[in-house]
Amino acid sequence: MKKSEEPKAGTSVGPVTREIMPGVVVCKDAESVALAAARYFVQWAWQAIGENGKFNVALSGGHTPATLFGALASPEFRGQVDWGRVEVFWGDERAVPPESKESNYGMARRELLIRVAIPGGNVHRMEAEKPNIGRAAQDYEDLLREKLPLDSRGFPRFDLIFLGLGPEGHTASLFPGVRGTRETSRWVSTPLVPKLGARRMTLTLPVLNAGHRVMFLVAGAEKAEILYTVLAGTSEHPLPAQLVRVPDGQRIFLCDEAAAKLVLEEIAAKGEFTGKRDAVEVGKKVKGKH
Question: Rounded to the nearest 10 degrees, what angle do helices 224-232 and 279-287 cross at?
Answer without folding.
Answer: 120
